[in-house]
Write a structure and sequence with these properties.
mainly alpha; three-stranded antiparallel sheet; two-stranded antiparallel sheet; 10 helices; globular
Length: 301
């Protein structure tokens, strides 16, 4: 008389055969039971549209990378505007004693702050973004983590804006060394540089997302950035321009940055300065949303 073993779990009333096969009560042999399905991968829930943890992770990465090349970046972002300050301040300053009630070194010293902000935000937004997207595939790797395009763009633009706010102080410090009197309002200059840099960094990211080749940046540099730089009121008052050109220059965000910096240094004006702040905030908001839209189209199939 054969002894029966206890039925295994999952095969009630049957014996266990070889190789995991189960013998049913009627004597039929059944194949091995299928393996239990693997647990499904858990998705990372999105708590907010812009999660601080995701933005902070991208900012932390940018800071780690920046520590490796901060010397060259700082050199190019600080020295070029300083050269403009010294060349125009002492070159034209020998010919022009005062402009708009200020000495020319004071006029140029406060105006070149906007130039430093522009150069340290828009050009990294253009070239660094394009290289990360096209050649290094950095954004593809970041998007594999629980980070979306909106958080990615926001962190990138925030990082460039912070740098722009800091680098904008360099020409101001040089101007102080050559005779510009310090004032309490100078503490607002990094904040003005941050808001302005945010808009221009987002503008650079937008163009980098649209461009098919890095050579396309030549069109933007020559037809957009250079005119904005020249007619911002940094080196001469806009009243010296023809009427139509002065009117167009009022739409230049960099001009509003120049005016805010001068007012912060020499005395704030409530009405005009609120208008300048409003223009810079609208510019930053519009460029930020455009950058998110264009880069999402480029990165997400």
């Amino acid at each position: 008389m054969a002894l029966k073993r206890d039925s295994p779990r999952g095969a009630p009333g049957g014996d266990v055969g070889t190789a995991g096969a189960a013998i049913g009560p009627s004597g039929t042999v059944r194949g091995p039971s299928p393996p239990a399905p693997a647990p499904a991968a858990t998705e990372h829930p999105r708590v907010h549209r812009l999660e601080p943890a995701a933005i902070g992770a991208v900012l932390s990465r940018e800071l780690s990378v920046f520590r490796r090349y901060w010397r060259s970046t700082t050199f190019s972002s600080v020295v070029e505007p300083t050269i403009f300050l010294l060349a125009f301040g002492f070159g034209f300053g020998a010919l022009v004693s005062q402009v708009a009630g200020l000495s020319y070194i004071e006029f140029v010293g406060t105006g070149v702050v906007a130039t430093a902000v522009l150069f340290s935000s828009v050009f990294p937004g253009l070239f660094t973004t394009f290289v990360k997207r096209r050649y290094q595939r950095t954004y593809d790797a970041l998007l594999a983590a629980p980070i979306d395009v909106e958080e990615l763009v926001t962190a990138e633009v925030l990082w460039l804006a912070i740098r722009a706010g800091v680098y904008g102080l360099a020409p101001l410090l040089v101007a102080i060394a050559f005779g510009l009197n310090p004032s309490p309002g100078m503490v607002l200059v990094p904040l003005i540089g941050f808001v302005t840099g945010f808009g221009f960094a987002a503008f650079g990211v937008t163009i980098a997302a649209i461009a098919k080749s890095i050579d396309n940046f030549n069109y933007v540099t020559s037809s957009v950035i250079t005119p904005l730089f020249l007619v911002a009121g940094a080196f001469f008052p806009l009243e010296a321009l023809p009427g139509w050109a002065a009117m167009l220059a009022q739409a230049n965000p960099l001009h509003h940055c120049v005016e805010l910096v001068r007012d912060a240094v020499f005395g704030l004006r409530a009405g005009p300065d609120l208008r300048h702040v409003g223009v810079l905030l609208v510019f930053a908001l519009v460029m930020w949303r455009l950058a998110i839209w264009r880069l999402r189209l480029r990165l997400i199939d």
